[in-house]
Amino acid sequence: MLLEICANSYQSAKNAKGAGAHRIELCQELSVGGITPSFGLLKQVVENLQIPIFILIRPRGGNFVYSDVEFEIIKSDIQICKDLGCQGIVSGVLNEDKTIDIERTRELVELSKPLEFTFHRAFDEVKKPKEALEQLINLGVERVLTSGQERSAEQGLELLKVLNKISNNRIIILAGSGISSENAAQFKEAGLKEIHASASSQHEENNSLFSMPLTYSDPHKIKAILDAI
């Protein structure tokens, strides 16, 4: 089983690499579900860490319905990632009725080539997940990151199993949300091939004017997940 770590900083990415994670999804602002990382962070991670790096391309928090300007920003960020030498793109677009925006997602998949394309957790908002999965397969998407449309992947495990069976090796079901060393083995036993986790810990900044704790991917938690699978 492959473990992808959702890394929100250079230190998190470095910890993931050092602990033996198989791949990184690089982003920032996990508190809003992740947004596109800065150019400086992208450059540092790609140039200094020898590990497959997928980049979350999401211009803001909130929903996955984008204006024309936001869509242009997404496309520009994908091109930057390609130029820097990343291995994969994580993105996707929905319509107002929470169906997959086929044309815009197709455009992003084509622009991302030859990089791999993961459709992110916008999938967990679609009304007909089985139909949406077939649409993503037809678009040439390599994998879909999903919690099985529940708050956690453990709660969504039954749908994850169904989706994995439907996929029939045509697309990878990447289970994510709330995965830890305590439950990781369940996903392997269910026949899933890849899991996604932040494996994060908080470091309190007691002397800071800003009270938000620093969150980073914890190498001990990453190793514990790897041991579990």
In terms of topology, how is this protein built?
Blueprint lengths: L1 E6 L2 H10 L3 E4 L12 H10 L4 E4 L11 H17 L3 E4 L10 H11 L3 E4 L9 H11 L3 E4 L10 H11 L4 E5 L7 H6 L4 E4 L2 E4 L10 E4 L1 H10 L1
Parallel strand pairs: 1-2, 1-8, 2-3, 3-4, 4-5, 5-6, 6-7, 7-8
Antiparallel strand pairs: 9-10
Give the rounded overall mean pLDDT: 95
The description of the largest β-sheet is: 8 strands, parallel, barrel
Low-confidence stretches: none
Which CATH architecture?
A: Alpha-Beta Barrel
Oligomer: single chain
Shape: globular
Number of helices: 8
Number of domains: 1
Structural class: alpha/beta
Describe it.
By secondary structure, the chain is α/β, with parallel strands linked by helices. It has one domain: Alpha-Beta Barrel (TIM Barrel). It is built from 8 helices and 10 strands. The strands form 2 sheets. The protein has an 8-stranded parallel β-barrel, surrounded by 6 helices. It has a two-stranded antiparallel sheet with strand order 9-10. Strand 3 (53-56), helix 3 (68-84) and strand 4 (88-91) form a beta-alpha-beta unit. Helix 3 runs parallel beside helix 4 (102-112). The chain is globular, with a radius of gyration of 17 Å.
